[in-house]
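TL;DR need structure tokens for one chain.
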Amino acid sequence: MIIRAKTKDLFHGRPLSAKQRENSRLNLEELQAGHTVLRSMPRRLVLELTNACNLNCMMCGRNAATFQPTVFQLDWLRYFEPILDTVEEVTLMGWGEPTIHKDFVQMLELIHQHDARIYFCTNGMQLSQLENAIFDNQVDVFAVSVDGAKAETNARIRRGSDLNKIVESLRRIKQRQRTSGLSYPYVNFVFCAMKSNLHELPDLVHLAADIGLEEVKVVYLTAFDSILSQESLWDCRTEVEAVFQEAAELGESLGVTLKLPYLQGEDPAGEALHRDCFVTWRDFFLGSDGMVRPCMSTPVQFFAFDMNRPFEDMWNDTHFQQYRAQVNTFRMDEPCRRCYQSSHCNWNQKRSFLQMEETFAPAWSKVEA
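>> reply
TL;DR here they are.
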């Protein structure tokens, strides 16, 4: 089965509570109406635990930005506890690797005390140490970033990564899930497609099926410097289409869902700068530098997180109101005009693939807790 990146919808895992369902219903209603002041809470909290990483991936935008390591404070998560039975999901993801945070397991434990589903995105190198925590805290879904079906390809792109170690960890996790008869965790590979690894996508689908993973998600490389632009698939539509077709047929035969970006020229956004964006209605994003931002794929910073400020006040801050009013109009700001966020960008646009000489990441000036 082929699916596209979700926008309004989130992962459908264990059933939502009545309170969550009502909040989600109201949030979607307000989104559709284009309200800028919301009575609903966000449906998802996206928390960047750190912008540091234990890898040095060749395509990571961290290598093309002024980098200052920052770390999410555990007390910030405790601040959100009053709404953790209302939001659908807490997503632990951002510019860095969340699983290297010293309090990562404690954060899973805290979220697990509430109704929100748990999702995190990882490079997979810590999974062997996290197996028990994943099951003890009922992690609903996690994504593992790998950029090759061969260990040498993945290691060349994701410098410091060990595909064999990742696969071994995933085999143990999926075997334990099957043996225990559990529906969680749902696991997918996330594959950043570029010229030098595109041909390995079908083999990655084979590998996912062999491990027992449910899905392979593909995102296009966005190049943040001129050297990396040589890897861009912007001008490779014919090759991309052929590989996507082969991978899709394999996925169908092996029972692996394939989540694909649109082919260049076929994105339903047409000539628009991006597909309709819903993040400032659906998500509340807090960076590891203590700054609230519209999403992780923009340098725009709304304001500093303040634990003494009521959440509803931050959620309807004038910055959120302005973004909700402008993000899907010609008045959107410059970073949104060249959106590269995989769920919302327009893959018909060259600027979605190529971001050289652009400001795409925050300054990462640390806010003291």
